Amino acid sequence: MLNSKRPKACVECGLPFGHSDFTYHAGRVEKGPAYWSDQGILCSHACSTAHFLRREKQGNPMTEPAPNPFEKRSIFD
Ligand SMILES: [Zn+2]
User: How far, in Å, from the CA of 25 to the mean position of ligand 1?
Assistant: First the structure.
């Protein structure tokens, strides 16, 4: 199930979306995050990997690509 909380920060390290260290799609904040899961957005490849490994450890692996939260405009509404 999708998390109903709107993604506003990296779910792994808590870096806020909009921070200059956040990795954006095509390098542009208005394009949205470069990494995300069904649980929220991820700031970097490192956090994406950490998130994937944590989910596997917890027995809750990501089994399919998560929907892009920006395509649903869940951050901007
Ligand atoms: Zn992070």
Answer: 15
Residue 11's domain comprises 1-77
pTM of the complete model: 0.73
Neighbouring residues of 52: CB distance < 8 A, sequence distance ≥ 6: 37, 61, 62
Number of structural domains, the chain? 1
Cα 13 to middle of ligand 1, angstroms: 4
Alpha carbon distance 11, 44 (integer Å): 11
Segments in the chain below pLDDT 50: 1-3, 74, 76-77
